[in-house]
Design a protein that fits this description.
five-stranded antiparallel beta sheet, 20% helix, alpha+beta, 22% strand
């Protein structure tokens, strides 16, 4: 998608601090971190939101969670972490590309505050 911020980051058109990359997934440091460790994990294929996950692309969600486990191990997040997906405007999604936030290295309370 031409105008998608995260597609441009994946293509290298916009600089990012890469945390992880494979054939299907790209993870980078959030520019406004909400925790001492805050990665944004996106599929390289453009999917607008969780509402667009279907039988043809759902394997990418599995690839994202495989990446989460790798990132957690590589960054010594053994004390725990949170994975968050915001879907739609009222769900807090601000970029129209499916993405997950991986937050760690602070005590994450529930409900979030």
């Amino acid at each position: 998608m031409e105008d998608c911020l995260f597609c441009k980051i994946v293509k290298g058109e916009i600089n990012s601090t890469k945390i992880y990359e494979d054939d299907f997934v790209y993870a980078f440091a959030d520019i406004a971190p909400q925790a001492p460790f805050h990665a944004v994990i996106v599929p390289k294929e453009h999917i607008k939101s969780a509402d667009e996950i279907n039988a043809e692309n759902s394997f990418l969600v599995a690839k994202i969670f495989e990446a989460v486990a790798i990132i957690a191990k590589e960054n010594n997040l053994e004390k725990g972490y949170r994975v968050v997906n915001n879907c739609g405007e009222e769900g807090g999604q601000t970029v129209g590309h499916l993405h997950f936030h991986l937050l760690a290295r602070r005590n994450l309370q529930w409900p979030p505050g």
